[in-house]
């Protein structure tokens, strides 16, 4: 099933890299400074839906919004190396990406991150070489769980849903894939998460995918 797919689309946060702790820390500092509140990880995660800039502009007074957005991205870049650990899981994911490239598969990312943060992470981790096309939240009118980003990728490759497979770690990812009629793989590569929307496949290790198609 998987080996027949030609287009492999990946979510980014907690799918390709374990980046949520970094995101939580940056948001926490920004909201404490500009809203004078301390937020837990779950408080912050409840705001997700849209890019980092969209989230900040929706919750910070307009007169502080530009400054708050700028601070977020400064923090994201400066704290990146501290939070993002290139551990065994990441090594296995990069091995998967290499194998897929070798097989001639076309790799893309559809992420809820903004364009600036995905560019920072891609550059720091030297991941640009693996992906042919990236769709960030800034590139769509409708955020996940809408399927616009996946459909945009299919259109870019002049492909049909049956050509593609999507990997993600959240319900929003699975819903996006199902709305696009694309095979949905729920990943528990970094952290085990319970899906309320059943993926077509659940993968606990990126090596599973290598054994299936490479």
Automatic annotation (TrEMBL):
Molecular function GO labels: phosphoglycolate phosphatase activity
Domain of life of the source: Bacteria
UniProt record, GO biological process: DNA repair
Extent of the signal sequence: none
InterPro entries in UniProt: HAD-like_hydrolase_sf, HAD-like_sf, HAD-SF_hydro_IA, HAD_2, HAD_sf, PGP-like_dom2
Gene Ontology annotations for the cellular component aspect, listed alphabetically: cytosol
PANTHER family: PHOSPHOGLYCOLATE PHOSPHATASE
Full protein name: Phosphoglycolate phosphatase
Source species: Streptococcus cristatus
């Amino acid at each position: 099933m998987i080996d027949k797919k030609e287009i492999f689309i990946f979510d980014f946060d907690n799918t390709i890299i374990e980046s949520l702790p970094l995101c939580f820390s940056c948001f926490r500092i920004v909201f404490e400074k500009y809203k004078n509140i301390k937020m837990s990880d779950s408080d912050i995660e409840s705001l997700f839906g849209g890019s980092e800039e969209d989230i900040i502009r929706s919750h910070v007074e307009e007169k502080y919004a530009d400054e708050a957005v700028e601070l977020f991205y400064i923090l994201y870049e400066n704290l990146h190396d501290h939070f993002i650990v290139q551990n065994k899981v990441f090594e296995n994911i990069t091995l998967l990406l290499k194998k897929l490239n070798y097989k001639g598969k076309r790799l893309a990312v559809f992420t809820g991150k903004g364009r600036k943060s995905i560019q920072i992470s891609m550059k720091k981790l030297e991941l640009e070489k693996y992906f042919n096309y990236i769709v960030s939240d800034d590139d769509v009118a409708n955020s996940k769980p809408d399927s616009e980003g996946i459909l945009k990728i299919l259109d870019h490759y002049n492909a049909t849903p049956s050509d593609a497979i999507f990997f993600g770690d959240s319900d929003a990812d699975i819903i996006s894939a199902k709305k696009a009629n694309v095979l949905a793989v729920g990943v528990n590569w970094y952290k085990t998460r319970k899906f309320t929307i059943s993926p077509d496949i659940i993968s606990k290790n990126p090596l599973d995918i290598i054994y299936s198609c490479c």
